[in-house]
Amino acid sequence: MPILVYHHVYPDRQVELDVASPANATGVISESDFTLQVRHIASRGWEVVSTSQVVDWLQGVGSLPARAVVLHFDNGWLDTRTVAMPILGEFGMTGTCYVISEPTAAASQGKLAGIRTSTEGFVYKPFLTWDHVREMLDAGWEVGAHTATHPKLAEVLSREGDTGVLVEVERPNAEYLEHLGFIPAHFAYPSGSRSQRTDELLAPFYRSLRLWNFSHPPVWTLTDRNTSPLALECQNVDNTVSFSDFTRIFEQAES
Fold it and tell me: Which of 29, 115, 216, 249 is an S-S bond match for 150, by CB 3.0 to 4.6 Å?
């Protein structure tokens, strides 16, 4: 089962798209390329399901379509709401948006917020507000947890021990509860940085933990019946992924 992970979806010719590196993920994709990929998913009969449906299935509850795919959008960038969501809506699709709590809180107060990412370094970019997140929930999207500040949790554990990791869980969970009325059931590791100990610390809080990795050319590792909900596999999709590599995800899933 493919779980596709996107970061930024930008309008065509936006200057942020002028970045490409075979050695590193860029985290950006154009609106037209994203639309082409979504159209491919729809035309081949793949059905977008929620993260909760997948986790239920992994735990022996319910069933999934023969061609099931999941769409994830990391960090809570504003373009997830303004660019990606309308495109998906045209195809009757939704996704899971993994929201970093502190920049979302800042954006909700009209403030600029920055985070450090593996794809872009330290950047100041527009984030969703809590109002945007509620709009997405109303439209059938799921919201996942993605820490308070987007650190690499394995490094936090090394520097600050268990307490440092738990701060990045408990603080955002309080924000989610205050502004959304619930704590998300699913968590995505920032930059894929994790360890057995971070898994142990996070498992009591969430139904699933999602991994992330990058390789070029891409090597796709899929979620299947043998996958632990605490180690969901995914496929990073950005402008380093050719359309032929993108279609190969689905060919591999059916083989």
Answer: 115
